[in-house]
């Protein structure tokens, strides 16, 4: 199985191109203004205009105003949206753009029910739950809580690093993994060596030390 890799929290063309050259399948851009990895729609569209084909740009929104979403997607037809807040299935689908839905793994969450609710989503992204923090917690969750027979592809997020991504891929067999803080020098600035190593370990190209 070839696990795909999304490098999230991209804030510069330099970081974007390095991730692509290291083998990233997708790049994530955060449009949540409380995040230290926030980027404006104009800056993000300028970056993706310079990306090669077959690299997927993912737009992360958290309970965003419709005007912000439209400002982004009007600038490029390449976007896939990742809804990372409390968006309803109807509000996710209304933009007529392919989307993922992030589910934070609260103790009471029923993933089978959530998959049925967001039936139009391309995939479900699973992230750790921390009260008051919509994402980027740097924490993992119990991967054994993920059912094996979900009807949607799983994108695994939450506290992944170069040290645990190979184990995560072996345990969960996700369609893709998603990392942001785990490959940074500082918030919003990627570490090229960590990015390259993370991608190789996620794809099984290096032995685990």
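Sequence proposed for the structure above (209 residues):
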């Amino acid at each position: 199985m070839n696990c795909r890799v999304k490098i999230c929290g991209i804030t510069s063309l330099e970081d974007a191109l390095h991730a692509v050259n290291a083998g990233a399948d997708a790049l994530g851009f955060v449009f949540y203004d409380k995040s230290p990895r926030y980027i404006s729609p104009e800056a993000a569209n300028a970056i993706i205009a310079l990306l090669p084909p077959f690299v997927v740009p993912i737009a992360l929104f958290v309970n965003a105003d419709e005007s912000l979403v439209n400002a982004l997607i009007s600038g490029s037809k390449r976007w896939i949206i990742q809804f990372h807040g409390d968006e309803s299935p109807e509000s996710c689908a209304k933009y007529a753009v392919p989307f993922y839905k992030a589910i934070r793994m609260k103790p009471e969450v029923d993933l089978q029910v959530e998959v049925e609710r967001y039936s139009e989503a391309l995939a479900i992204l699973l992230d750790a739950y921390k009260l008051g923090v919509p994402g980027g917690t740097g924490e993992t969750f119990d991967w054994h809580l993920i059912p094996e027979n979900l009807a949607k592809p799983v994108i695994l997020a939450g506290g992944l690093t170069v040290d645990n991504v190979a184990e995560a891929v072996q345990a969960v067999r996700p369609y893709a993994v998603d990392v942001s803080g785990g490959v940074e020098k500082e918030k919003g600035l990627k570490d090229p060596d960590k990015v390259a190593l993370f991608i190789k370990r996620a794809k099984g190209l290096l032995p685990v030390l």
